[in-house]
Specification:
This protein is mainly beta. The strands form four sheets. Strands 1, 2, 3, 4, 5 and 6 form a six-stranded antiparallel beta sheet that branches.
Length: 272
């Protein structure tokens, strides 16, 4: 199936409308910082569990009232590289911390720290956020929790990201006939496209697993897509993804189109 710009206009309209609804819910449900979110958050909203059901070990990181007062001079346990050089650490939480959670299949997907988490703020503005916006860094894992059992799907070591609010993140969902894809995107902006970590729940077997993306024979563990609208979407059982545009770059006229290969746990780019 060839997807043209004309054919995609209904998709853009649907996505933009969904984005307006989701942006309003974020403004009402989270404690905002100085700036608003200018990120493409137009996926189908996945049902998420309430923060009140977060295990007690993670409450200190999600309830600002329980955080210690800002402390100057905390030294990071992680390498001082890239964005980390623009971060001031306010507190360190040794308890297990949930940063994202969403109901999925018969359980839930979690982004959870597996060691001390450093919570801070940006000292200066950058492509990743404005001065004062909140930062989080830890060794994180993506976990599928079903009952009392946790299945680790992926690791994100020393992962540092920025958010304008302190609310627990959701996993965006894109639903297909055979599986649901969940896409956590912790970094809300970068100037070079958003990077999502994709996971799937097989609707028949209930199996949870990470997804990879194949284009021109190259396998990637993440999906990079445009920060602005439209976001990745299912169009006739194909994943349609608009590429990011960096500074001075020209947008691609056509989106990338992927076909789900459930056997190999991959999305394979369709050749034009």
């Amino acid at each position: 199936m060839q997807i043209t710009q004309k054919g995609l206009s209904p998709i853009r309209t649907t996505i933009q409308a969904a984005g307006a609804i989701l942006s309003l819910s974020l403004l009402l449900g989270c404690s905002s910082q100085k700036s608003s979110i200018s990120v493409a958050a137009t996926f189908e909203a996945a049902p998420s569990t309430s923060p009140a059901s977060t295990p007690s070990g993670s409450s200190a990181a999600t309830d600002p009232a329980q955080l210690p007062e800002n402390t100057e001079g905390i030294t990071s346990q992680f390498p001082l590289e890239g964005l980390a050089s623009s971060v001031i650490i306010d507190s360190v939480n040794d308890a297990q911390t949930i940063r994202a959670r969403t109901a999925a299949g018969q359980g839930e997907l979690l982004m959870i720290s597996s060691g001390p988490e450093e919570r801070g703020h940006l000292n200066v503005s950058s492509n990743y956020g404005l001065e004062g916006e909140q930062t989080y860094q830890a060794d994180y894992s993506i976990v599928y929790r079903k009952g009392n059992q946790d299945l680790e799907l992926s690791k994100l070591p020393a992962f540092l990201f920025v958010q304008p609010t302190d609310c627990i993140l959701d996993f965006a969902r894109v639903s297909f006939k055979e599986a649901d894809m969940y896409l956590p995107t912790p970094q809300y902006k970068s100037g070079h496209g958003l990077v999502g970590y994709a996971f799937a729940i097989d609707k028949r077997s209930g199996e949870a697993f990470p997804l990879s993306f194949v284009q021109d024979g190259i396998v990637q563990d993440t999906l990079v897509y445009a920060e602005l609208q439209p976001a990745p979407v299912n169009d006739h059982e194909q994943l349609v993804v608009f590429s990011p545009v960096g500074a001075g770059g020209e947008p691609e006229l056509e989106p990338r189109v992927y076909i789900l290969d459930l056997v190999n746990h991959q999305f394979v780019a369709r050749k034009n």
